[in-house]
Design goal:
single chain; 403 residues; alpha/beta; seven-stranded parallel beta sheet; binds 2-acetamido-2-deoxy-beta-D-glucopyranose
């Protein structure tokens, strides 16, 4: 891969900027889990009521979105529509505001960009994008910032996990064909985040949730990290969204609409690397599909869209932190162009973090050194994008208040 030929006009600014752009200085957050990526273990009864199943090895029964869609091709879309509209509602948004939450992370599957799905071999519900737009409108109106998280990736990125969309040991994400599909998804979601006013709350985009922890099993991750950031920035520069420290590409000045700007960008071999250009080429028709699905204006002279692009903040590109992986992982800090943040996940209930006592938990959490260890490797700012309150023991109310 010609990885030296990326972004010649941007090469000098990598690592220079560490602002948080559209994210609050201090995040009080939660996930909107099991909404657009349904993990049956979180809602066992509702899942069974929908027609799902439970089994000890989730690859052997209807225990993922993929298995459900394969089993019920005629009713899957309607069943999931009911789930989407009832699982996350305006009253949830009101409760988040009441609790002082200022940021949410929304896990998404690649299948929300429907043309990315190979329907001969891949099975997922349709219609999630419209619900995402509805939820983002509610969150935008409530003033809550959003981290969109590519949680379930094409080809499956983690074995034996419901969160991967399909529960299987046949992990195919870490291949050039699926890295490409993930970049296409990235380009479409980046463009939408800026162009659709309902997406105004979107401040950050996470490249991949929880890759396999052994870096020997994730070949190509370092290149993918770089291409992910370059794709986000290529779309932003095409749309006229200013990215600190970079020179505007000037593409938007001659374009009449966003599709034309992206099409023009996809030909700029002097600006963008070949993998990024290939992603843009395939993203244009998929972006057009979603624009029609959501009924968006993309004409730059209509409703002040051109000025709105110039007023947007760049997305905070986001990765799991380098210490998520072992065995000499690539450092996502090496991919940064413009604002970037890092995500670590902390669950005591699965064991391995601290002894199963109240004292050990509190001693551990008060002395946690993950932020410092990451900062030493330029993985800063760090946030805990998943943080499980559950414990390995019956917690007292007194303990939970300290926890
Ligand atoms: C965008 O511009 C292209 C090129 O001028 C044109 O073919 C296309 O119809 C336009 N799309 C919209 C939605 O205006």
């Amino acid at each position: 891969m010609p990885s030296t030929r990326f972004y010649s006009l941007l090469a000098s600014v990598a690592l220079a900027v560490s602002v948080r752009a559209g994210l609050p200085d201090k995040i009080y957050g939660t996930n909107i889990g099991s909404w657009l990526v349904l993990e049956p273990w979180m809602l066992p009864q509702e899942w069974v009521d929908m027609g799902g199943q439970q089994c000890s090895d989730c690859s052997t029964c209807i225990a993922s979105e993929f298995a459900f869609a394969q089993a019920y091709p005629d009713t899957v879309d309607a069943k999931f529509k009911t789930h989407w509209t009832t699982w996350f509602t305006q009253s949830d948004v009101d409760n988040l505001v009441g609790a002082g939450i200022n940021t949410v992370r929304i896990p998404l599957g690649y299948w929300i960009v429907e043309p990315l799905v190979d329907r001969a071999t891949e099975f997922y519900p349709k219609g999630g994008m419209v619900e995402l737009q509805r939820g983002l409108q509610q969150l935008t109106n409530a003033g809550i910032s959003v981290i969109l998280d590519h949680h379930a990736l094409p080809g499956v990125a983690s074995p034996g996990q419901m969160f991967a969309g399909r529960c299987t040991n046949d992990v195919q994400f870490y291949t050039s064909a699926n890295y490409h599909r993930a970049l296409v998804w990235t380009a479409v979601i980046t463009a939408l985040s800026h162009v659709d006013p309902n997406f105004a709350a979107v401040a950050a985009l996470e490249a991949i949730n929880e890759p396999i922890m052994d870096a020997n099993q994730t070949p190509g991750m370092g290149d993918f990290q770089k291409h992910f950031v370059q794709t986000v920035r290529a779309v932003e520069l095409s749309l006229g969204v200013p990215v600190p420290g970079t020179t505007p590409a000037g593409i938007i000045t001659s374009a009449t609409n966003v599709s034309e700007a992206l099409t023009t960008a996809s030909t700029k071999t002097s600006l963008f690397n070949a993998d990024v250009l290939a992603a843009l080429v395939d993203a244009v028709p998929m972006f057009t599909y979603v624009v029609e699905q959501l009924g968006l204006n993309i004409v730059l002279e209509t409703n002040g869209l051109r000025d709105a692009m110039a007023a947007r903040s760049p997305l905070v590109t986001t990765f799991m932190d380098i210490n998520w992986q072992q065995n000499s992982p690539a450092n996502p800090a090496d991919a940064a162009i413009g604002p970037q943040g890092y995500d670590n996940h902390l669950y005591y209930s699965f064991g391995g973090v601290a002894d199963a006592t109240e004292d050990a938990y509190l001693t551990s959490v008060c002395n946690l050194d993950r932020i410092e260890k990451d900062a030493a490797l330029n993985n800063s700012p760090l946030w805990f994008g998943e943080w499980g309150l559950s414990t390995q023991f019956d917690a007292t109310d007194d303990f939970l208040k300290k926890w």
